Every structure is written in structure tokens, then in C-alpha cells.
Amino acid sequence: MTGHEDRMEQRGTAAGASLTAWARTATFPDPIRLGDVEAEVLSRPVRVDAVRRESSLGGRIVLLIIASLFLIAPGVLGVVGLLLADRATTADDIDSWLTGSRVGYMLATAFPVGVLTMWFTVYGRHRTGYEILVGVASAVTGVAGLVAVAAGELDVPGHLVVWIVLAIVAGTACTGFAIFASRSGPPPERVPDHVLAGSETERLQFRDRTLVLHVLRDRGLVDDATWRRALEMPLGTWHRLDH
């Protein structure tokens, strides 16, 4: 079968399916011709209205700060609740602050689990940075909570101590997996800054192309060296990798 016929077969397979589904199931020549793969990606109509628009650099920084504060807030709430409960003078105040602390540590346990689940299922074990942020925050505030319990004069309920320990375990696990079990390279959804400066259509095409590349790497059709080179190449240049 000729290269043109191969590509026509791939295009037919791709009809009616998402690009990632096509990349997972299509039959490619050996060795794979990335120029033809990229041509298939670029030939697809881009649904601009279905993808969120990239914000400005300033907007992204603000969103990053807000997201970071939101993700570390539960553990901080847990520690603060313990400290204020220890200083409270009425039973109602003590109970209220301990309840707030318990909620904080429950969330400080849930957040690392949720972020780690996304790291595995959405980002294909590629580190985004949030895994370490959330993991370290939960672990550190958990340790601070245990110190506050030991140093304070208040009789803290056993179930609250359990949640503190769980937060430490979840945070440590999240951090450990992110550091030692992450795959190299950026997440599949990442778009380099030089692409963000282009048109929205180019940004979406680059993102689609990157998603396909990750699938091909997972299938063993692209080696790590080629994968690293292809990640940052401008649109329309993958044919240079074909031999």
C-alpha cells in the first residue's frame, strides 16, 4: 500500500471520531510518518466555540493565584481552627472551631486525592505543579495540626486527629507520586507561549496535535527523543521528522 493510500485509510478511519480516538485505533505505517499524522490533524475543522479561550498573561497569573489559595485553604483552616479552639473560652466557641478544623482537614484529605486522580486520568501522569502544591500544603498543615494538638491544652476528639493523619498521608502520597512517578514533558493540554501569541485556530490545532502525539507515544509508535522534538515544533513541520 502506498503512502497516499495509507493516509487515505487513516483519514477514513478518522471520520466521525475524535482525533484522540482515531490516534488510539488507526493503523499507521512502520515507521510512522508524522507528516501525514499532522496533515490529518490540520485537515480537521476546528470548533472554536467549543474550546475555552486563552486568557492574557495577567489573567492567567491571577487565576493561578486564586486557584492556589483555594487549594491550600483547607489545611490552613484546619490549623487555624485548632489554634482558635484552644484559645476559646466557651463550649459553643470550642465546638464551632473544632468543627471548622474537622471540615478543613477533611477537605485537605480530599483535595490531594482529587488532584492525584486528575494527574493520572486527565493529564496522563504528567505533572502540572498543582500536585506538589496541594500535597505539600496538606502534609505540612497536617503536621502543624498534630503539633498544635500536642502543644495545646484542649482535649481534641479522636476523629479529628484521624482526619489530620489522613491529610498527612494523602498529601505525602500526592507529592511522592508527582515527584517520582510523573512522566517527562509537559501535560498534553499545555500550549507553549509562542503558540499562544498566534491565532485561536492555531492554538487549538497545536493542542489537538499535542494530544495526538501523546497517544502515539503511549502506543509505542513514537520514541521519547522524537516525542520531545515534535512537542515544540511549529505547525506544519512534522514532515521534517520523517525519514
How would you describe this structure to a colleague?
The two termini are about 20 Å apart. The model is unreliable at about 1-15 and about 50-55 (pLDDT under 50). α2 (about 20-25) packs parallel to α9 (about 200-220). The radius of gyration is 24 Å and the shape is elongated. The chain has ten helices and no strands. The longest helix has about 30 residues, at about 55-85. The chain is mostly helical. It has helices at about 5-15, 20-25, 35-45, 55-85, 90-120, 130-150, 160-180, 195, 200-220, 225-230.
Count every helix, treating DSSP H or I runs of 4 or more residues as helices: 10
Radius of gyration from CA coordinates:
24 Å
Secondary-structure content class: mainly alpha
**What percentage of the residues does DSSP assign to strands (E)?**
under 5%
What are the low-pLDDT stretches, counting only 5+ consecutive residues below 50?
A: 1-17, 49-55
Give the beta-strand count. 0
Give the overall form. Answer: elongated
Distance between the first and last residues' Cα: 18 Å
The overall pLDDT, averaged over residues, is: 82
Largest sheet report: none
Oligomeric status: single chain
Q: Write the element-wise H/E pattern from the N-terminal end onward.
A: HHHHHHHHHH
Percent of residues in helices? 55-70%
